[in-house]
Amino acid sequence: MKKAVSIIIALLMPVILFCSCGGTRDEAGRISIVCTTFPQYDFARNILGSSDGLTLLLDDGADLHSYEPTAQDIIKIGSADLFIYIGGASDAWVEGALKSAANPKLKTLALMDVVNTYKEEYVAGMEHEHEEHEEAHSGSHIGEDEHIWLSLKNAEIMTQKICEEISGIDPENASHYKSNAENYISKLNELDSEYSALAASAKRKTVLFADRFPFRYLTEDYSLTYYAAFAGCSSESEASFETMAFLIDKTKELALPVVLTTEGSDGSLAKTVCEATGAKTAALDSCQSVTAEEIKSGKTYLGIMESNLEILREALN
C-alpha cells in the first residue's frame, strides 16, 4: 500500500504544488479542514458550528483498517489548512502523503499523540485485567489500539485540542470556537456521567463480544470486564472451536442476556452463541463506518454514543 501511495503522490506532485501554493481559503475566508474518520469530523463540525470547509475522507462506509487514499484525497490534504487523523497503524500511509503535501501552512494533528492509549494486545477468549494507561507521546503508535474516540473522556480531550488548533489558524474567531467547544464538551460530560451511573448501578459488570472488539477504551472508562472473539483491529472472522466453546461457556456461566457485535458484522458467530445459550444479540456502533448520506440524515457522534448507552443498559441488566 505504501508503494502505491508513493506512486500516486509522485504522479500528482505538479497538481498538489499548484493547489497548495495558491492558498487554502475560499472566497468567504473559511478555513479548510480534512479529517480521516467521522468522530474527529463531528468534533470539528461542532467547534466550527457548521460543516463549511470540512472534508471527511472516509465517508463511504470504508473500513479504517483497509482504507487507501485516492488521488483526490491526497490533493485535498495538500490544499488544506488543517489535517486531522488518528495516527495509528491504519494511518501508515499518512507519512508519505504529508511529506509531499508541499503546503508550508498545512497544520497536522495526530490524535493518538494527545490522549493516553492502550496496547493492541489480545488473546482471543481471555479476560483482560485493567491496566494503567500508556503515556501519551509523539511518534509511532504501531501496536496501539486506535479506537481512542470510543472513550467520552478522550473525546473531550480531542475536542479541546482540535479547538486549539483551529483557533491558532483563525484567531479572529477563536472566542466563537471556544464557546462552541465548551458547549459541546458539556454534552460529552453529561453523557459520560450517564455511562458512569449505568456502570455503577448495573446488575452485571461484564460484556461479551462474539466479534471484533474495538470498545476497550469504553469498557476501561467504566471498569467493565470484557470477553471477545477477536481484537479490535483483527481481520479474522472465523473463530476456532476453542474460542467458540469459551464464548458459549462464559455466556452461560454469567447468565448474560445479550451477546454483542459491532456494526456491519454478519452476526454469524453471535448467532451460534445465542442459539446455544438463549441470549439475544445486539450491535454497538464503533463510529467507524458513517457515510455521507447518514451525516446528511443527522447522524452524530453523540447520537451514536447515546444509542450505545441504551444497548449497554440492556446488556448489563
End-to-end separation in angstroms reads 45 Å
The backbone outline, from C-alpha atoms, is globular
* Percent helix: 40-55%
Work out the strand percent.
5-15%
Mean pLDDT: 86
What is the number of helices?
Answer: 11
Residue windows where pLDDT falls under 50 for at least 5 positions = 5-10, 12-24, 122-138
- Major β-sheet profile: 4 strands, parallel
Structural class, by secondary structure, is alpha/beta
Give me the Rg, rounded: 21 Å
Give a count of the beta strands, DSSP E runs of length 2 or more.
Answer: 8
The sequence of SSEs as H and E is HEHEHEHEHHEHEHEHEHH
Strand neighbour order, sheet with most strands: 2-1-3-4
Short structural description:
This protein is of the alpha/beta class and 317 residues long.
Descriptive notes:
The chain is of the alpha/beta class and 317 residues long. Helix content is 44%, strand content 12%. The chain has eleven helices and eight strands. The protein has helices at 2-21, 38-48, 71-78, 94-99, 152-169, 174-201, 216-221, 241-253, 268-277, 292-296, 301-315; strands at residues 33-35, 54-56, 82-85, 107-110, 206-213, 225-231, 258-262, 280-284. The strands form three sheets. A four-stranded parallel beta sheet has the order 2-1-3-4, with helices on one face. It has a two-stranded parallel sheet with strand order 5-6. Helix 7 links the parallel strand 5 (206-213) and strand 6. The longest helix has 28 residues, at 174-201. The relative contact order is 0.13. The model is unreliable at 5-10, 12-24 and 122-138 (pLDDT under 50).
